[in-house]
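lol ok so funny story. i was supposed to be doing the assay writeup but got distracted and ended up predicting the structure for this chain instead. priorities right. anyway since i did it might as well share w the group, maybe its usefull for someone
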Amino acid sequence: MIEVKNLVKKYGNHVAIDHLNFTIEKGRIYGFLGPNGAGKSTTMNIMTGYLGATEGEVLIDGHDILKEPEEAKKHIGYLPELPPLYMDMKVWEYLEFAAELKRIPKADRESAVEDAVRMAKLQDVEERLIKNLSKGYRQRVGLAQAVLGFPEIIILDEPTVGLDPKQIIEIRELIRKLAKNHTVILSSHILAEVREVCDYIMIISKGKLVASDTPENLENQMNGDETIEILAKAEPEEMRSILLNMPHIKDFKIEEKPDGTTYSRIESEDGIDIREQIFWTFAEEKCPLLMLQTSKVSLEDIFLELTQKDTVSMVFNQSGEEEKTNAGDL
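and the output, tada:
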């Protein structure tokens, strides 16, 4: 549905998007994940024709967004981070206006607006002024505008920012409903949100694509050496001394707790299970273990690892293979 090829966007000397390449396929919810300033919104604005690119091209169902904007935009519904609402319009009036701008045939406009209102659950507020609505309802109006005419691709930039927990759950439910018949691209810097609703994740950092795969595959592929967490009734130096003398430990981190205990996260060599060894070693040192468990890499760990890299990027392709390249080559 979407092909982004060698995309570059510069503002003076600042590179916002740095040779970005990816493909969006039908029938998935894609999560655009990255820290603030990573280039997510800039990429979306170029994909939807709001901004021009310095280099590269974006094809929407085969149509170049810059050379054939009208044809390309027919396939896209877009909700920017700040919804383009006219506060002095009523909800229904605004959606009729948006339908006209989208060139929905006059005979079909009323039914198109009805469908969008029903989908976004705006029936109770359709005759109210937008300026009198809560932020959650305004976001729903923006979402209804995006789905008017039900284009094949729905692009949502930070759709839940500033909403309360109840409103966030409602917007997530709407996104899942949309995904049954549309390709959805969701931009966010909230890890839990992406993990909750997306079935494919693209992580962007400093304008570069650093990972692309399902959440499950990303977590599995990053789980190399086994990680063990322990909590012991010991001083930090005592625990450090014990761990330094144990074999098959690749690395460990120690954290002193306020209650007099010490926590450690331990990486073993080559996936060796050293839990029994840890148990008996601490027992022999008469150092009580209060917790001993293995842990898996979380999406948060992956996000931090990939977005903090400066020169090397790790890209996971759809076959699950890891490709390491210089970031400038992506």
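The radius of gyration is 25 Å. The first strand starts at residue 2 and ends at 11.
back to the writeup now i swear
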